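Annex B.
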Amino acid sequence: MNDIIEQPNLIRWYYEGLKQGVFWAMKCKKCKNVTFPPTGCCEHCGSWEVEGITLSGDATLLYATHNIAPACHPRFEKIAPYVYGHLQLKEGPIVQAVILGVEPTPEALHDLFNRGPVPAKAETIEMEDLPILGFRVTL
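DUF35 domain-containing protein: predicted structure tokens.
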């Protein structure tokens, strides 16, 4: 994919990739940095010279917590309570996502914290309307 993707098509491309278990991002041809989620220009240098790449799905979970308030959007009510966290992708960007494989209890989160940064792998979580990105920790 070497041509500039129009924004509505970019969003569709991202979600269609998620449905297929493919995790898309943009790589800048100028500065070589990765932008995720994908946008029409580089978030690092502002260049429009970006191309689509497939992410490995490999990440490191840096921080995790659980939702204690009502879900942030009605689509998340069916999976609540859940764990979410900040992860650094192998390709560089830091993202927020639902964390799979960890119970949303203080004890489980405390154990996870004591392990320090742990590896995680991207997964698609099927929702009623749109798929979402999740990461499963590999403990």
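Helices lie at 7-19, 106-115. The first helix runs from residue 7 to 19. Further annotation is deferred to the next reporting cycle.
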